[in-house]
Amino acid sequence: MSAQTGKIRLWLGDEAVAQAAIDAGISGVYAYPGTPSTEITEYIQKSAEARALGVRSAWSCNEKTAMEEALGMSFAGKRAMACMKHVGLNVAADPFMNAAITGAHGGLVVVVADDPSMHSSQNEQDSRYYGVFAQVPFFEPADQQEAYDQTREAFDFSERWGVPVMLRLTTRLAHSRANVKRRVEQPRAQNPIRFHDDPRRFVLLPAIARRNYNELLKKLPEFQAAAEASPYNTVEEGSDRSLGIVACGLAVNYLREAYGDEACPHPVLKISQYPAPRKALARMLERCESVLVLEDGYPLVEDLMKGVNARPGAVRGRLDGTLPRAGELDPDIVAQALGHAAPHTHEVPADVVPRPPSLCAGCPHANTYDFLRDAMADHPGGRVFSDIGCYTLGALPPYEAINSCVDMGASVTMAKGAAEAGVHPSVAVIGDSTFMHSGLTGLLDIVEDKTPMTLIIADNLTTGMTGGQPVAAAGRLEDIVKGLGVAPEHVHVLVPLPGNHKANTEILRKELDYRGPSVIISRRQCVVAARAGKSGIG
Amino acid sequence: MTHQDILIAGVGGQGILSIAGIIGTAAIERGLHVKQCEVHGMAQRGGAVVSHLRLSEKPIASDLIGRGRADLLLAMEPMEGLRHLPWLKHDGGVLVANRVPVRNLKTYPATEALIAHIDRLQKRRLLDAEALARKAGTVRAVNSVLLGAASAFLMIPAEVIRDAVAQFFDYKGATIVEQNLMAFDLGRAAAEENSKAS
Ligand SMILES: Cc1ncc(C[n+]2csc(CCOP(=O)(O)OP(=O)(O)O)c2C)c(N)n1
Ligand code: SF4
Fold first, then answer.
1. What is the CATH number of the domain that holds B46?
2. ipTM of the complex
3. Ligand 2, residues A120, A358, A390: which to mutate, most atoms within 8 A of Cβ?
C-alpha cells in the first residue's frame, strides 16, 4: 500500500483542473456548460476556498462571451480561465484566434474538453488543431495528476511568455476519478491589477496586429524548445526497435495497461506538451523500423510524422488502418494494435436491446411535442428545425417530431432559411438556455426580414441537459422577444400540461397559418430541477 | 488480492455513482490506488450507463477496464448486466445482479429469458433488491442492497464498506443511514443464502 492518505483526493480530471486553477491564483473562471467540461466550473462554484478568495465563477451566456471576459481579466493583469467543450471552441474561435495575437497579460488558460466517440456531442473534433491553428502552446494531460500539475504549469507558462495556453482534455480523463495530490497548502496570491506597458497591445489595428503577430512568430521557437525539453514529454528506452510507440496524453495508459507488470519492450515517446516535439519524433523514426502513433482524436501527430514521403509502413496508426479512424481509444483497441491476443469473453445475448436516453417522466418537453405534433398534422409539407438539449430527444420515438439538430442556435436560422426557400410551416424548437446562447441574433434576422415562421422556445427554466444550471434572463424571455421586435399579439406564453393540450394546439395552429414571425414560449419547469429545488433563476 | 476491477452497470438515475463513490472512498482510506470512470451527460437521461471502478495496491494505468478483465460485474438490473458481460472475466468473474428490471422502453425483452441467461453463469448472485430495499424502509436503498450483496467479493473487508455506507449517507440524517445499513445487511445475507442455493 504505497499511496499516502491525507493529501490524496479522489478527483475527476475536471476537478483536478479546477483545484489547480484555484491554486494557481485565478481571479475568475468563465464558462458555458458543456459535457464533459461542466464539472470544472461547478467545482469552483462550490469551492468554499474559491468563494473566500472572491474568485468569480458564474456561468456566461456562451463560450464566446466567456472567452472575451477571460481575456478582459487577463488584460487587467489577473489570471483567468475559460472552460468549454470542444464545439464551444468553435463558438469562441474568433476571440481565441485573436487572443493569440493580442497575447495574454495575466495568465490566460483555455480548457477545452473533447468528446471522442461522441458520448454527448454532435461531432468528435480534435481541439489540438485549434492549438496548432492559433500557434499557441498546449498541454494534453495523461492522467488526473498531470491535469492538476499541467494546469498550474499552463498559468505560469502563459504569464511568462504572454500567450494564451490551451489545456486539452477528453471525456475519459474529464469524467474519471483518481488519486490526486494537491501540491500546495494554499492557493497562490492573486495578481493585483497591472496593465500592460504598451497601451496599444490589445488594439488589433492592422499595423499593431502585424507587429504583434511577428512577436508571436518570434516566440514559436521558444515554445518548441520548451516542448522538446518538457518533463511531460518523455522517452522510455526499449530494446526491441522493430517498433517504436508515440503515445499522446491518455493513450499512454492504455499502452501501459497492455503490458501489465512488464515493461514495454519498445521505445516509447509520450507526448503531453505541444507544439509536438519534432526532434523527439524524428529520433523515433530514425531509431525504429516503424512507429505506431496512439492518439485520441484525429491523427494529428501521425500525419505530422508521415509527412509527404514516409516509407510505406513506417508510420502506423489511424491513417493506415492499424487503429480505427474514428472513435476513442481503449485498452482493447490498443492491445489489438500491438498484436496481443484478446482474452476469451462472454457474449452479449441476442435479446439485449439498446437503451437510448429518453425524456424523464413528466418532462414539460413531452407535452410541448404533443401539441406541436397535433398542430403539424394538417401540414405534411411543414418541417421542424430543432437544436441541442434535452428536447433533442424529441427526434426519437415516440415523438419523432424534429427534423434537425446541428449547432447551438441553428434551429432559429435554419428554419428561417427553409421558410425563405418556401417551406411552410417552418418551425424552430429551441431550449431557453440555447436561445440565450445563440438564438437572439437569429431572431433579429427574422424580425428584420419578417420571415413567415414560428419559433417555439421550450422554456423549462433551466439548462437541463448539462445538469440544471441557471439560465440567463429566466422568466423574461417574452420581454426580450418583444424587445427584439416580434409583434406582441404573436408572442404567446403557454404552459405545457396535458390539461392545456387542446388550447395550446389551437394557438399554435393559428400561428402556423400566420405569414409572419411568431414566437411561442412553452414554459414549465424541468421536473428534475424542480425536485432538486433549483429555482433555475439566477 | 492486490487489485480488483469492478464494472457497475445500470440505467441513468439508478445511483451507480453512489456505489462507486462509497467503494472508492473506502479504498482511498485504506491507502489503495483508485480509478473510477463515470458517465455524465446525455446517457444519464434514462439510458444505459456504466462505471468502471479499479482498485489496486499499485498505481493504475488505464481508466477503462479491458474486455474480459472485470473481476466483478454489479448490475442494477438484469439487461444492463447482460449488456456488459463481455467485460466480465470469462473464468472466475462474478455477476451480482438485481433481478428487477427497469422497463423504460417498449422493446424490453421478457424478464424470464434474461434471468435464464444469468442463471447459466457459473458465479452469480441474483436477488430481488427492490423487495429487500423496501424491507429496509425505502426503495431508494436498492444500491445499498446490491453493495451489501457484492461486499463478500470485494478486496476491501465488508465491515469497512459498511462503515463507508454510513459515512456516505451521514449528511442525510440518522434514519437514512439506518435504512441503508439495514439494506446493506439484507443484501449481504441474501447473497450468502443465494450462494448455498447455487
Ligand atoms: C457550443 C455548445 N456549447 C455547449 C453545448 C452543450 N449543451 C448541449 S445542450 C445544452 C443546454 C441545453 O439547455 P436548454 O436549451 O435550456 O435545453 P434543456 O436541456 O434544458 O431542454 C448545452 C449546454 C453544445 N452542444 N454546444
Ligand atoms: S432533465 Fe428536465 S428537461 Fe431534461 S428530460 Fe428530464 S425533465 Fe425534461
1. 3.40.920.10
2. 0.95
3. A390
